[in-house]
Design brief:
The chain has 19 helices and 14 strands. The chain is α/β, with parallel strands linked by helices. The chain folds into 2 domains: about 230 residues, D-Maltodextrin-Binding Protein, domain 2, CATH 3.40.190; about 210 residues, Periplasmic binding protein-like II (D-Maltodextrin-Binding Protein, domain 2), CATH 3.40.190.10. Strands 1, 2, 3, 6, 11, 12 and 13 form a 7-stranded mixed beta sheet that branches. A 3-stranded mixed beta sheet has the order 8-9-14, with helices on one face. Strands 4-5 form a two-stranded antiparallel ribbon. A hairpin with a 2-residue loop joins strand 4 and strand 5. It is globular and about 70 Å long.
Length: about 475
């Protein structure tokens, strides 16, 4: 899940008292540092001195690997790993959520010291750190033993060429959440294609109904995912040529998607409100939008923000993401995190054992998804009857995992992220804002984005292909 989205959520939460929303991306509420002095062997201390673990290590005769992470249930996850492991122990510290952790990690990278052995990172941040040689390729450290635990798409998201720079933990397969009451009132069935989506939106508008969706300028990662669904390949990277990058942000699929949403906004079929804001959430609660295109973590976020409660109870359902070509469906992802081994790890092989094994046991995975806190990528969870058959309260008992999210996760093929993702997302936000205002077309927005990001890449020393 992206940092920029977390910042937006934090801002909204401060206003609408939804601070505990998106628990998967929040600091651990149990993260008190009350177990100093219980770390045992400090030979692999990394950036955290292993004598100051948040967790208590009882197998003091084993080597220790230091770990940074901010999942809400990290205390349980680390304890589970340590109980079950007789080769290594994990010493966990929460140095901050997302951006705060990254800032500390970047400082450690620049200094050449101070990083942990293993670090939790969002998948779209891996290229940024990998290109600085701050992460280790862990493929030779047991990848074949765990390869089958995750899908092809999940592994691609944490890889560069044949190298693997993280172990995927959670993700965000994208789907279409919708208001059952609005669909029933206007006799709309969930659209299976984007053409049907536009037709349904027009039908609702013509009948005097609400907006059908929203073109939010501040959800660039989602916009990119929808462009990829159409066939776009925004970035191509060859690990053998680390200073060269392919940037294609104004190809026809990219322009088609932006033109589509620009047309819907221009015709008054969708809104133009930034998402994760109090205004947007108020609109969702009050039935201003018939649909909400978002990821599998959205139910947890919406519930925490006050959606689906009171008069909203039982009014939401979820359907697969509409397709451009139903004969060749493409599933996409928004968000997700992994555990990576840093180049400052004293023993990369031992650190890899922690990265591969942490958050991989059934108890930790079950605790993670029970309240729709995270969407697990481990196939042991994705295949478990408890997860697949779960009747999701937010969706009025619908088996959303079985109906929508698990098939989407299994079909996802992965993508290539940019090593300067934050700049790209910010640049896209600027263009989507102009598109929503109607001052430019989708094609123009794509051309401007291409020019902007390509120029930035060259300034950073890249050769743009």
């Amino acid at each position: 899940m992206s940092i920029r989205k977390r910042k937006l959520i934090a801002t909204a939460a401060a206003v609408i008292a939804a601070a505990s929303v998106l628990a998967a991306c929040s600091p651990d509420p149990k993260g008190n540092a009350g177990n100093a002095g219980n770390a045992g062997n400090t030979g692999n201390a990394g950036g955290n001195n292993a004598s100051s673990c948040t967790n208590k290590i009882t197998k003091t005769n084993l080597p220790v690997v230091t770990l940074w992470g901010w999942y809400p249930n990290m205390q349980l996850v680390v304890d589970n790993f340590n109980k079950q492991n007789n080769e290594v122990q994990a010493c966990w510290t929460n140095v901050g959520q997302g951006g705060d952790e990254y800032q500390k990690f970047q400082t450690a990278i620049s200094a050449g010291t101070g990083a942990p052995d293993v670090i939790m990172v969002e998948m779209d941040r891996i290229p940024n750190f990998q290109i600085q040689k701050a992460l280790v390729d862990i493929k030779k450290f047991g990848y074949d033993n765990v390869k089958a635990n995750y899908s092809e798409g999940a592994w691609k998201d944490v890889s560069a060429g044949d190298a693997v720079y993280g172990v995927p933990i959670d993700g965000g397969p994208v789907a279409m959440i919708y208001r059952k009451d609005i669909f029933d009132k206007y006799k709309i069935t969930p659209p299976k294609t984007w053409a049907e989506y536009e037709q349904a939106a027009q039908k609702v508008k013509d009948a005097g109904g609400p907006l059908f969706g929203d073109l939010g300028a501040n959800v660039s990662a989602l916009t990119m995912a929808l462009q990829i669904q159409k066939g776009a390949t925004p970035f191509t990277i060859d690990p053998a040529q680390p200073t060269s990058i392919g940037i294609k942000l104004n190809d026809q699929p990219s322009k088609d998607v932006l033109d589509f949403w620009g047309r819907l906004a221009k015709n008054g079929l969708v809104g133009k409100q930034d998402q994760f804001t109090p205004e947007y959430i108020a609109g969702v609660i009050n039935g201003k939008y018939a649909t909400y295109i978002s990821a599998a973590w959205a139910p947890g976020y919406l519930t925490g923000a006050g959606v689906g409660k009171g008069k909203d109870t039982g009014k939401f359902a979820v359907a697969p993401l509409p397709q451009w070509d139903p004969a060749n469906p493409v599933q996409v992802n928004w968000g997700g995190s992994a555990f990576s081994v840093t180049s400052q790890a004293k023993n990369p092989e031992l650190a890899a054992k922690v990265a591969y094994g942490i958050y991989a046991d059934n108890e930790s995975l079950t605790d993670g998804w029970t309240n729709q806190i995270i969407f697990p990528l481990n196939v042991n969870a994705l295949k478990s009857p408890e997860f697949v058959d779960l009747k999701v309260k937010f969706f009025d008992g619908q088996q959303a995992n079985k109906d929508v999210y698990v098939p989407a996760a299994n079909a996802y093929k992965g993508m290539t992220y940019s090593p300067f993702g934050q700049y790209y997302y910010d640049a896209m936000t600027k263009q989507i804002s102009s598109l929503a205002e109607g001052s430019i077309t989708g094609a123009q927005a794509a051309d401007r984005l291409q020019e902007d990001v390509a120029a930035y890449a060259k300034e950073q020393g890249f050769t743009v292909q």
